[in-house]
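Continuing the series of single-chain predictions for the mutant panel. This is the parent chain; the variants come on the following pages.
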Amino acid sequence: MMMEFAVNLLTPFLIAGGLTDPAFARQTAKETIAAYQVTSPDQLLTVTQVTTFALTAIDNLRLSLPEDVSLSMKLKLRGNATFDFHLVLPLNGTSALSLAGNARLSDTDLDAPDWNLSLGKLAGPLRFDAHGLQGGPLNGTFHGKPSKFNLALGAATSDPTVMLAAHMSGN
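Parent structure:
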């Protein structure tokens, strides 16, 4: 029963991300969970939370790119993070999806060579909801030099014409 609940949570995020066949999206959700080899309900909940957050964050980045640019072609992200979020996914279709949460990055690298962007050892808080993501202050490096960052994606920019806003200070 808990597994079915987790699959029901992940499936709409996969559909929103481009898997237009609901049956295929459900199968993908099951395979994603199975890949983590969870052995307890707590692990299943953690895997579901992390996967849902990742799908939301990636979708926010995807929405900020021009249509002819693939996110996977431009952005490499690796590192560690902890997550805490609240997700309401209505099953009756009468209410809107609700997502709000926090993450804390630690020793995370973000590289986009085509944009001459290399952020290393990022550490700090992120806040997100179903419409956007806000991060900062984040400590890290920009091309190897110590720096501080603040960023906003989607609705977190407070300007509907701006999909990504960033501020950096450092050497």
